[in-house]
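step 3/5: co-fold with magnesium ion
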Amino acid sequence: MTEARRVQQQARPGGKLLADALVAQGATHVFCVPGESYLDLLDGLYAVRNRIQLVTCRFEAGAVHMAEAYGKLTGRPGVAIVTRGPGACHASIGVHVAMQDSTPLVLLVGQIPFEETDRESFQEVDYRKMFAPLAKWVTQIDDAARIPELMAHAFDVAVSGRPGPVVVAISEEMQKDLAAVPDIGPAAVLPPHPAPEAMPRLMALLAKAQRPLVVLGGSRWSAEGRAAIRDFLVANDLPVAVSFRRQGLFPGQHPNFVGDLGVGADAALVARAKESDLLLAIGTRLGEPVSQGYTLLDMAGHGGTPVVHVHPEQSEIGRVHRPALGIVSDLNAFALAAKAAEPVKDPAWSGWTKEARAARLEQAKAPDYAGPMNLAVALQELEAILPPDTIFTSDAGNFATWPTRFMHLAEGQDFLGPTNGAMGYGVPAAIGAKIVHPDRTVVCFVGDGGFLMTGQEIATAFHHAVAPVILVFNNQMYGTIRMHQERTYPGRVSGTALTNPDFAKFIESFGGHGETVERTEDLVPAFKRAVASGKPALIEVVVNPEQITNRATIAQLREQARKAAEAAAAKPQPAQTTHGVPTPRRSGPRMR
Ligand SMILES: Cc1ncc(C[n+]2csc(CCOP(=O)(O)OP(=O)(O)O)c2C)c(N)n1
Ligand SMILES: [Mg+2]
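step 4/5: write tokens
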């Protein structure tokens, strides 16, 4: 910038420049826990309070999860602000979610005055080091004149290629410094489109296929992009699986939806994926959950199922599997190009698609579970009454496999879940979603373990007058880990039992609507009362602890472990054992 241009600008303090940079980048909400390290930014935000809603949270992890949910829903970076040291440490889990989930996020961290650097000043942390493996990019602003430039770059990096989190440390004194610099808005960048030969080559591979399978995943899908990719997939009558916790990308109720290829996927779908002769991976990384613990594909890419991998980041293509064809493209641009391509006429795989759909519907049939609460039936009854624009959020835990297996999302519904398996995500994500879309019904699924990690964010829902409905599945344990325990060390319950409060009373103490439901037929009426209350609501769903997974009881897991031990003992070369139980070999992804 020329000196003449610089003096034309009115000098603003760093705190105001930062707030104005957020406005210039189109931020509408900022999620924070305040700290004395960024008083000047808080003051800057006061000045722009009519442009940006500042959401005050109770825990930095909650604030970043809310911002991450904003990023998942809007495709624009969610913004969170936390204080130095302890605040940044609490916030780090949300950075990890945004990284593994490829969600655009900008985390601002108050920093000590830079003159004190390297004296281990109060709460001093080097954020470039701390967040190096967690974030896509980390920077620190020490010169107020560089705020517009570095903030614009932070937003650009967060949305570019594979989206992800950017951490920006803002040193304390810098926020007071005056600088006369203009704001910088988002750049007019045209995202990468499929190369001219991409669609013909893809369609040629497809035309030769007999048993193709689509795995749809990734982030920053627009409504238009989702509609276009659905039209392409349906016009070609392709069987569509979604990757781990990406149920919102393709309507589960559609006849082309065949299930989720994630952690705890249906064995029949995994078998089908192995049998397929063309895997079309659109937007997803071929990470551990999708690849079933790197067992699905010949990871070196020698032979095996040919893969067409479409991803916005070239370095993701070939990272764990060498594809037959890689297409680097913005996903929405790809979707439009795919929709415009002439569909394959009379595809050879229509029967295969129907079979896959029939298998999906078969596995979604509610089994006859023992006890008064048949969660499969209750969730399907709930599905039938939910508005078509419902947003679901999920925490991590075994309970999450029930909605995944037994519910089907309708067109227009969204699903936000932590693909990195972060407990404590569901409740703040629901609050963030409800703040972004106050008119939509937001339903959160969470276990008794995960709920007490961030359930106090209910106070944030009250403070900002939004009312999600939280379903707490109470099995009085860290069920997922107990499941692993019973498989590996049957009967030796260690560190997984929980003592819980009265969850309904917990939310009532905030002024919310609480219910406890023990029978299948009581969930829907309770849900209707919860919505009608207009208040943040919690329904504790008491589930049978013995039904540890949606496929097995604890007794069945112990029996399986016993048989496996017997089989191992009968072998001439005994397997390496721990406590008399064979050490299991990795043969698929772990349940999280
Ligand atoms: C932050 C975090 N801590 C620990 C874990 C390990 N973990 C995965 S699932 C799980 C238990 C979840 O318990 P709950 O929320 O009650 O759900 P359940 O499995 O019982 O349905 C634990 C401890 C994790 N994934 N994330
Ligand atoms: Mg539990």
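step 5/5: annotate
Residues 577-585 have pLDDT under 50 and may be disordered.
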